[in-house]
Fold each of these.
Amino acid sequence: MFHVRECGDTSMNGITLQVYFGSGKGKTTAALGQAIKEASRGRSVFIIQFLKGRQPEELSFVKRLEPEIKLFRFQRREAAFEDLSGQEQEEEVLNMKNGMSFARKVLATGECDVLILDEILGLLEHGIVSLEDIHALLNEASEGTELIFTGIRLCPEIMEWADGVYQISALKE
């Protein structure tokens, strides 16, 4: 179920930030729906995924949408982050930080019109990035860029920065 909360400063550098969060399933699917909608309008879309295990069928489907929608993953391991050993998690943290650097570069150079950072809220929750890192990322975006964040937990600061916040929760499973 989607609950829309209107909030945020829509004038932040002339960019738009949407957030899909909550404990329910479908946050990535909602973001992918937005990606398809924007790509069908001729906009270039990049998706950077964090904290997810490899799901070959989903990855191969999204790869078929290239060049309009490009998917990037910086994690090397097949398993989800939570299922890795401490040492493996440390190695993946470095990979995810590289993913964040890539996101900043993409925004600074204007390589895409829409950037989806799938599970970026989880990076914040795990302490892999800070609010300052995310704010700096937003400041790299040029006017007209649309960003979409997903994750389970939303902090008040990101809610304030967002133009649209969508909470996804299961009413019955």
Amino acid sequence: MQSTIETISQIERRVALSVPLDVIEKEVHKRLTRLSKTVKIAGFRQGKVPMKMVEQQYGAQVKNDVIGEQVQEQFSTAVREHSLRIAGYPRLSPKPANESQENQLEFEAMFEVYPDVTLGDLTKIELTRPQVEVTDADVDRTLEVLRKQRATFAKVTRAAQKEDRVMCDFTGRLNGELFAGGQGRDVEIIVGGDQMLPEFEAALPGVSAGETKRFPLTFPADYHGKEIAGKTAEFELTVKEVAAPQVLPLDEAFARLMGIADGSIEALRQEVKSNLQMQAKNRIEKLMRDQVMAALHQQAEMVLPKSLVEMEMMSMAQQVAGNLQKQGMKPEDINLSPEMFRKQAEERVKLTLAVSEVVNKNQLQPKAGQVRALVAEVAQTYEEPEAVVRWHFEKPERLANYEAMATEQNLIEWMQGSARVTDKPMTMEEVMAPALSLTPPTAS
């Protein structure tokens, strides 16, 4: 007999389930009989434990297992009969005995189904695609950075200036008292390197070895040290040494240092240019992805399944807690409520459902060749690429991340072919700027 699904709301459903008591009792007896042959209880030989003792010790657990499996089987059958796509897990509750039929255990299952997703006209979405050409000036600037990163330092007797290294001791006091983290010994700071708070940085230019300097420093209101956030401390800085950078010349030795075997400057420039082109390509792909995902999130309309949101909230809380433990925080000191992540979880679930709708509707699932190509690309970074590829294809679950990457690539490519795309010439510096975002602000 087909079950009846009751519609509670747009995505909430309810179904009644019943399991005959005689079916439960037969299965429980069968399992306890099998268990009695292997169970070990003090005072009895294996296989000789009286059935009554087996029932007393294991009967309740076995019965609960059987009931759970029977109810789940009936629920799965009902879902298949009605071709439902279940979101999350069902909430099962037993009916009171006085409301149940004789010789039956009856339950109600409340659950959610995946919502209908409305996306509107995706051809009206506007995307901006950066166009970047890596120039000789970009190569020159990168080589300059690489040379400075590998600079050595030589002690000087003059006053400190930008890019010099200052070695110093410092002591900070709040109301005349020392505070945790306010002291340093033999600390090396690059002048203008933004290693310290702005007021500390401002005290460094012009100082000389042997000089002592005092200055006030106000900690930001959102400073990570809550006990000093927003407060003003008095600092005393003693300079021990000022050293100037000795930048390596752009010559054959430097080229070899950078991995060019024959020391060719031209080969080094070409290598740098290729790397910059790859960086630009990856950056543009990210900028396009961000725009596409933001547009889909904004266009999509749906009723969010509470169960999926709650599962995402729990997952995010567990992930953050795990990261904090890896950083050395004790589990008992981590107080994270899943509710803290509700807004982010809702956004993630909404975007996931929107992406799934576009992918399924337009058949953007990855082809086997795409997935293999992505695996092979990553495998090239290992000593035995073919072995890495074989390992990934031994088990389907190892390909999940690559399948997701390929699906996303297909989605971004499809969206660029469907939406209104404007190509925008940009310099390398502009496109690589960390603050750059081409995603339009969300309408309030």
